[in-house]
Amino acid sequence: MSKKIPGGLALTEFLPRAQAEGYAVPAFNARYRACIRPIMEAAMAARSPVIVEISQRELGWFGLTPAAFREELERVVRDLKVDVPFALHLDHTWEMDVIEAAVEAGFTSVMIDASSKPFAENVAATREVVAYARAHGVSVEAELGRLTTTDKLETMDDEEMYTDPAEAGDFVRQTGCDALATSVGTAHGVYPVKNPKIDFERLAAIRREVGPATILVLHGGSGLPEETVHKAMALPGGGISKMNIATDLENALLEAMGGLKRMTSAELDAQDPALLERGLAAVRETALAKIRDFVRSAGRV
């Protein structure tokens, strides 16, 4: 059995409340190990639940392992005496050995992203992960449909494929996944238009098909207008209750540090301490703004 991070929760332990009350829990991709602390500081200051996550591609690019990422979060939780609900989530991942490593390292939730595969293969891959994760008390997010991207750290897909509501119902029934990431018009990375068109009717139909027990997830939160997120959270029967945010945090960090280019986590740690603190302060403020104004999860503890 894995040893889950002390205090860490599965998505099913705190996201149903968000669904019932019409807010979403922010899922921040920390990317850099140093960004975990300001994210947790923001959640503590706002009294908000929070999800700290990293994807398979991000682990590789930023030179991290699931164990190293978990160790840093555990250190932050201990140092700050964190008393808000939180999850340690593995974002977009397609290889079983990476999922197993994350579960063994103490992640409380994982995402299997087999959305590029045909429906039957996606179902089979997701069922395998669900069986493994359930045995360890870990929740599972899956994806049906594909988001386009301007940030290759999130996904390599350039072609968008919207989630079919009827397929979504079948998918959840066949796999037993806890959370479903949907494709309804959002995108990974920076949006090429100011206000992307979101298919709310499709999202509402997905909710009807999957039923109230399934957590709905919206990826591509960076740059999305607040009113769009608020509408997605307030859908009849339960809107989205997990909102992924990645690029906005990294952009805030690097811009505050004078426009530095993307680097590894170790290279960030080696920056001048005063410069680094300026960047981390920007991460803290960005996360706080997202919590208060974007997903409206402040004061939900």
UniProtKB/TrEMBL annotation:
Gene3D superfamilies registered for this protein in UniProt: Aldolase class I
Phylogenetic placement of the source organism: Bacteria, Bacillati, Bacillota, Clostridia, Eubacteriales
Top-level taxon of origin: Bacteria
Pfam families given in the database record: F_bP_aldolase (PF01116)
UniProt name for this protein: Ketose-bisphosphate aldolase
Entry cofactors: Zn(2+)
InterPro entries tied to this protein: Aldolase_TIM, Class_II_FBP_aldolase, FBA_II
